């Protein structure tokens, strides 16, 4: 572990937290630091860490939804920044390079934890949010494709009830009254539908994971 910078905890205060992807620094500000980092200057590393760690931590936290995991991935990211400093190209964006390392760390984390029940639940809950978020236009077609394929695994009746409950956010009692069935029937069919959607998420783990990571950084 890099004791000279990564040993400190990252505090995520809303008053000081800056979006990593929106954060900008002038070339005059960054290039000399990157050049010094490439020359193994630890002080330059510290300064770059201070500039980027808070915003990057915010993104990691959105991706993994666990503070301690986000902190660990942040440290892993900057360890790799230091280990790969000789590969830096000062003509290219340092921020984009650091983000790519962090993105790979998140992907590796989820891949290693693919069989972990808790992580699977976390990914499913994140996928579940796709029903209610508005994405940028270039992501909407993929969003609709994933959702339609997931819903396509359900029978017509299950899909009807699932869409009423999930997409229209109606209560079980409201759906029961609308379809002239009992609330317990609605509940039972929703349980089965959720099981099938979970199976879809597990069967398309890599595809969904990459898409959700992409959504998170927008």
From TrEMBL:
Transmembrane segments: none
A GO biological process held by the record: DNA-templated transcription initiation
Transcription found in the keyword field: yes
Stretches assigned to the RNA polymerase sigma factor 70 region 4 type domain: 145-192
GO MF terms held by the record: DNA binding; sigma factor activity
RNA polymerase sigma-70 region domain location: 48-114
Pfam families in the cross-refs: Sigma70_r2, Sigma70_r4_2
Keyword terms of this UniProt record: Sigma factor, Transcription, Transcription regulation
Source domain of life: Bacteria
SUPFAM superfamilies: Sigma2 domain of RNA polymerase sigma factors (SSF88946), Sigma3 and sigma4 domains of RNA polymerase sigma factors (SSF88659)
PANTHER family for the chain: RNA POLYMERASE ECF-TYPE SIGMA FACTO, RNA POLYMERASE SIGMA-70 FACTOR ECF SUBFAMILY
Family: Belongs to the sigma-70 factor family. ECF subfamily.
Protein name: RNA polymerase sigma-70 factor, ECF subfamily
Species of origin: Sphingobacterium nematocida
Lineage of the organism: Bacteria, Pseudomonadati, Bacteroidota, Sphingobacteriia, Sphingobacteriales
């Amino acid at each position: 572990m890099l004791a000279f910078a990564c040993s400190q905890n990252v505090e995520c205060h809303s008053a000081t937290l800056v979006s990593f992807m929106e954060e900008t620094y002038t070339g005059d500000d960054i290039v000399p630091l990157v050049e010094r980092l490439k020359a193994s200057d630890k002080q330059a590393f510290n300064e770059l860490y201070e500039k980027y760690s808070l915003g990057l931590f915010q993104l990691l936290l959105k991706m993994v939804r666990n503070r301690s995991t986000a902190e660990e991935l942040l440290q892993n990211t900057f360890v790799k920044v230091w280990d790969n400093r000789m590969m830096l190209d000062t003509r290219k964006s340092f921020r984009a390079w650091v983000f790519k390392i962090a993105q790979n760390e998140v992907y590796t984390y989820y891949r290693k934890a693919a069989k972990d029940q808790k992580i699977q639940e976390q990914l499913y809950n994140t996928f579940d949010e796709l029903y209610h978020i508005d994405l940028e236009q270039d992501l909407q077609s993929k969003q609709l494709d994933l959702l339609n394929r997931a819903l396509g695994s359900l029978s017509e009746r299950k899909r009807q009830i699932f869409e009423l409950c999930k997409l229209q956010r109606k209560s079980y009692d409201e759906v029961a009254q609308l379809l002239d069935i009992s609330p317990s029937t609605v509940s039972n069919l929703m349980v089965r539908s959720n099981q099938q959607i979970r199976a879809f998420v597990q069967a398309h783990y890599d595809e969904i994971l990459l898409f959700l990571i992409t959504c998170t950084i927008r």
